[in-house]
Amino acid sequence: MNTRTNDKVLVPQDQLTALGIAAFQNLGLAPNAAADVVKILVLADLFGLSTHGLSRIESYGSRIQVGGINANANITVDKPAAGLRLVDGDNGIGPLVGMHALRAAMEAAQDCGIGMAFARQSNHFGPISPYGLIAAEAGFASIIGSNATTTIAPWGGTDARVGNSPIAFAVPNPAGRHFLLDMAMSVVARAKIRNALKAGSEIPDTWATDASGRPTTNPKEALDGFLLPIGGHKGYGLALMVDLFAGLLSNAAYLTHVKSWVDAPDEPQNLGHFFILIDTRKLGSVQWLTERMTDFAAILHDSPPADPARPVIQPGEIELNNLARQKSEGIAIDADVLRLLQQYANQAAGVQPSA
Ligand SMILES: NC(=O)c1ccc[n+]([C@@H]2O[C@H](COP(=O)([O-])OP(=O)(O)OC[C@H]3O[C@@H](n4cnc5c(N)ncnc54)[C@H](O)[C@@H]3O)[C@@H](O)[C@H]2O)c1
Ligand SMILES: O=C(O)C[C@H](O)C(=O)O
């Protein structure tokens, strides 16, 4: 391991993965389950989405320890129709439930061309683009969403009744430059405001309001208040649609029925997710898709940039560039996060590891 700055450490992907798996196993997860969770969180870190990567061991680990997440979840998959799967997460750790739902939707899409999985009884499942990448690498286009703890006021309201529910769209380019749009419904994810508070910096007044609904630059006031939705009433409407699919239709909790992992860490969240997958090989050949996706990106890249130092990119490029760089030079991980992973990996954490 190679220290780069005072608070970031570069760790090779395989070492970080092994450390993460050991840590989650000591929190009581079976080896395969720990490997699924770490696959999503390490991909998040490779993408540069460190707010949603292995740093989440802090909240996931403490929630397992206080009984809020079931480390030994018995996740089940029902098949009510050829292209449909219903996943019950048994209050398992979110990325594990997410991986089960992703695999179930991929299997359904292989059979039917299009497959959909709804997951219920889940918890915070990390960022979405890692699931989109796994699907894209297997040839599937995807639309994936999750509901979330309520942090947004209904448009015109003054209390938190709407989740900052993320949605992601991914279309594979078999040559490797997949389109990956992964976005929360707020102007920024709440984790970025938590980071500003930690760093002692102000936030733009377009990110959030204080508890009385007034825009604020103070991250503490923002965390006590509400996130602002993207595009005003339109982002509000989109957030509700994601919750209708991820929460209401999946038979999970929705809106204020979702438990907050911050305020009630010892209670199951009963979050829901949805995964819609399309097998692109049923639409045309690999060459057909590669040519069209490459042309699609080229049309965008050819736009003369307003600032020559900032060429036009398509969604997902920042993350895929980070992934390529960090795969070769190592993953930049917060020293605090690394320490916590090492603590969990080196000592039994008070929860009996499963067989
Ligand atoms: N599980 C949850 O409850 C939850 C809730 C909220 C957010 N999240 C996760 O948080 C992460 C961050 O979300 P966010 O909304 O802050 O993301 P963001 O604003 O950083 O990026 C959103 C999208 O815009 C693209 N993008 C960024 N700059 C671009 C540019 N100049 N040109 C073209 N495209 C560009 C990115 O590739 C990405 O696909 C996501 O991974 C999301 O899934 C998870
Ligand atoms: O962490 C959360 O509370 C939800 C989401 O991941 C976010 O960052 O807003």
UniProtKB/TrEMBL annotation:
Key words, A-Z:
Oxidoreductase
**SUPFAM superfamilies documented for this protein:** L-sulfolactate dehydrogenase-like
Q: Which Pfam families match?
A: Ldh_2
Which InterPro entries would you find in this protein's record?
A: Mal/L-sulf/L-lact_DH-like_ah (IPR043144), Mal/L-sulf/L-lact_DH-like_NADP (IPR043143), Mal/L-sulfo/L-lacto_DH-like_sf (IPR036111), Malate/L-lactate_DH-like (IPR003767)
User: Quick check: keyword RNA-binding in the entry?
Assistant: no
Which GO MF terms are attached to this record?
Answer: L-malate dehydrogenase (NAD+) activity
Q: What is its EC number?
A: 1.1.1.37
**What's the top EC group for this one?**
oxidoreductase
Family assignment? Belongs to the LDH2/MDH2 oxidoreductase family.
Q: What is the protein's name according to its record?
A: Malate dehydrogenase
Origin organism is Advenella mimigardefordensis (strain DSM 17166 / LMG 22922 / DPN7)
Give the source lineage, highest ranks first. Bacteria, Pseudomonadati, Pseudomonadota, Betaproteobacteria, Burkholderiales
